[in-house]
Amino acid sequence: MKTPELHWVKEGQGPVVVLSHALGCDLGMWDGVAALLKSRYTVLRYDQRGHGRSEAPPGPYTMAMLADDAARLIRTEAAGPVHLVGLSMGGMMAQALAAMHPQLLKSLVIANSASWYDEAARALWQARVHTVLQQGLPAIADGAMQRWFTPEFRADAAGGGAQRVAALRQQLEKTDAAAYAASCEAVAGIDFRSSNRRIVCPTLVIAGTRDEATPVAMSEAICRSISGAQLQTLAAAHLSAVEQPAAFAALLKAFFESVSQA
Description:
The chain has helices spanning 31-37, 63-77, 89-100, 119-135, 138-148, 151-155, 161-173, 177-188, 216-225, 240-243, 245-261, and strands at residues 8-12, 16-20, 42-46, 82-87, 105-111, 203-208, 230-234. By secondary structure, the chain is an alpha/beta fold. Helix 1 (31-37) packs across helix 11 (245-261), helix 4 packs antiparallel against helix 8 and helix 5 runs antiparallel to helix 7 (161-173).
């Protein structure tokens, strides 16, 4: 199966931090966080396969494939282990990568994510796949924005929230429908309940207290499955790094500092 060419951006200086985005987004999702990290860290962010400007090979996709994509990028663009930060689908990829390629990671941050889905949830994912393949991404865009952001952020024209929402909606709608559907199926099939027990690097789990897509209970379950993992919360919906970049970046900096001092 073809290895896709990934589009990536690297900026800043210092220890390498890799940022992995959510389903239907691209590396631009991390603009606010990257801007706050790059004075102290080398920030490497990329578009996952089928997203943004990366290649979109035919499906099926699995989370292991997405983890292997990230592993290749880390081996090529980073000298030694990295701090890996993944949000939503990126956090699922991060869990897979930490178990499959532990030597590549200095630390792990899993934000607004899940470690497995039951049959009812998987049925909902399959329904979304059907809608996207039949009607395209615009058909699910309204629902996605409602899950991704709080009503206040979506309505915040003066503070720039509404503009960020519009830009991320545009990015979602232009995502390749077949690649998005294949990514949905990769997400629906996750089950890290056993493999997470093999994760040994320092781990921070971030949850949004207003996240209805991956509620706090899902983050608590991830914490229980990874030895020594710690949980922090933000008063945000699903894309917490977009809605509260300063608070998100502050959690990362404090965590990375604690890892370097251990």
